[in-house]
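Supplementary Data S3. Sequence and structure tokens for construct A.
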Amino acid sequence: MKNIFTGSLIKILLHLLAWTVLLGIPLYFIKRWQVGEDFIWLYYINIIISGIIFYVNYLLLVPKFFFISKRRYYASVFILLAFLFVVSDKSNELVFRYMPDKNHIEMKNRFRDDNPAQDLSKPGGQHAGPPFREMHFFNYMTTSLFLVFISLGMRVLERHSQTEKLQKELEKEKLNSELALLKNQISPHFFFNTLNNIYSLIAINAEDSQKAVLRLSKLMRYLLYDSERGDTKLSNEIDFMHNYIDLMKLRMSNKISLNISFPDKYEDINIPPLIFIPFIENAFKHGISYREKSFIDINMTSTRDSIEFRCANSIVKSREEADSDRTGIGLENVTKRLNLLFPGKHDLKINKSESVFEVILHINFA
């Protein structure tokens, strides 16, 4: 809301500045070249008519007709210009009529339509400019059409900017919804399995079960509070992934090979939360088997301006067909989220062979 008022205030100030310049121009000419009152009157009449054309088209005709019915808009512009031309023409006649300066009378007589000096085809015809009324009509139409196109272009650009801004807000809302959905997808099933594992662990090793409960509480705190801020520190995201992986180890057998490598030293930059966890969750959900040998490899490298993340897992034959649709939908949602968060600044590669599923994500923050 503050940005809206700020933008409107700047727009109003720019309009006031333009009018100050336009209305102050005659004062400069009067002082420098001793211009007569007739010029001042004609200038202010034309500038007021030009202002009416601009603002009526900008504030009324374009919003009300152009975006709804082009035919009505063009008809309305024609009526406006025709009416104001009559007003302009009559105003000019009144100015010439009541100005006692001989120069105006001579100029009016010179450009009068029935002045024989205008006809160069007649013998003795003198060289003269175009008829006054035709000259006035040409100047009026040129200026008026220019103002119509300028005001129309400004309004169309403003509407496009507002539409683009609204689109970005909708995309942001959609992104927040997808993030909330992602957290909801992680939470219920994962917490259910983790609590069952902790329950079984209590009877075997009370100390390890206490550590597991502590990790689970940190995980829940991050999902419920820390990730709501929009951005988080890379260190928080790495801690979250560590806690997630440690809890998932509770239900892993010796047949699963797990290799994890996160950077020890890195620039603690701000990143959107839960960027990498969908790939890790996907690996644990679809890439491990309790009956046959399987593996998960997770690796991350980080610099000041970029992050590269790699997650590879074995493909379990018994789950491949049953989970292919759900995996595809999950990766599609992640791809959409990355496109919204890092347009043109990320590279996501998904490689799949008969036995290995691999994801490589490179994000550039510069």
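Construct B, processed identically:
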Amino acid sequence: MTRELNFDGLVGPSHNYGGLSFGNVASSEHEGEHSNPRQAALQGLAKMRTLHALGVPQALFPPHARPELSLARRLGFRGGDARVLEDLAREMPLLLAACYSASSMWTANAATVSPSADSADGKLHFTPANLQNRIHRSIEAPTTARILRAIFGDPERFEHHEPLPATGATGDEGAANHTRLAPTHDARGVQLFVFGESASQPWNPRPKVFPARQTLESCIALVRLHALPQEQVVVAQQNPDVIDQGVFHNDVISVGNLGTFLFHEAAFLKTDEVIASLVEKYSRVTGHSLRLLRVTNEQVSIGDAVSTYLFNSQLVTLPSGKTVLIAPKECEEHPRVHAYLSGLLDGAALDEVHYVDLRQSMQGGGGPACLRLRVVLTDREEQAVAPSVLFSAALDRTLVAFIERHYRDRLRPSDLADPAFLVETRTALDELTRLLELGSIYPFQLTP
């Protein structure tokens, strides 16, 4: 049996609103507000619990260690940890927030994953995203790579690639710009790679306000690294106009699962051509028809899509075969978006919609789909996964107790300068690695 596991990022104890992600509307709107790391982590666990109860396999992706003071030291800050924190708070508070960023919880940006059913060499491929566009995320790749290797350790089954070079020409934001479509998880499928601009084709339209974070060159490199046949690949350009309206990743404007693709009519630069290519290749590769759910601007505007994160919902298939959407509560509370989803239910395009409260994550700019990395695994591949990260009722109880023991229920921007908070976060994460039996994955555990 082959099945898809959703590896959800556990929110870290330093969850804060630094407003660091230019182009992410929610991130900017909540800059400097007090956060609640405990509530954020428990809300994420509640989502995992909901999916697990529905029969959707879940697993855990641990948070990164923060603060990552090597970033500050590379920029000239000297002395012990307490001195660096003090100097950062006085001279560069935004850099202090970057060192403490908990954005690794959005594991849709952790890596691009291609299952063995699609790869020419029969291996499951991982490429950690370089996330070079934002300084607070550019520090994630080394720890992400260590975590992936700790969880997926068998070299006979798993192929781990180095992140792409961290340059503007090869910017890579991971699975947030990648969708796999297939009739079943074990069948060959079609993989959609979406980019925002091209370094080698400067004549292509580009956004004028916000940055395009994924390049054509990175998409082509990922296809090559993952040994994907060209007939199973579609590379499409995101609509620069929607990037300028806050659609910083493709998973804010489209979502796919198995043979169903939900997308906004303005998602791509040439949406009709992209969809025609997807439909043609999907039919030729799989022998099936791709089920399309096209959302018009009249039904849901780009502004409504961004404010509710409708397309950042999780589209999943239950063991019963039902097609289910896991949507943010913001979708339920928005009259037009709720009406649209009700119409999908009435028309049997969806069987169920479950609304989840992820307010803490949403205020930082990430919805349900941002919090998970999808990994399709055969039985043998799943047997090679570190078993301690597979979600269960027992792990759920352990994590709830861990969070309540270590996470603050109120974190102010000024708290980031306190050396005691650094000790708190490291103590918590050191314990977490023991609970998850992952060994030493954090820099502070690797340094004598």
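The CA atoms of residues 57 and 79 lie 46 Å apart. Residues 37-54 form the longest helix (18 residues).
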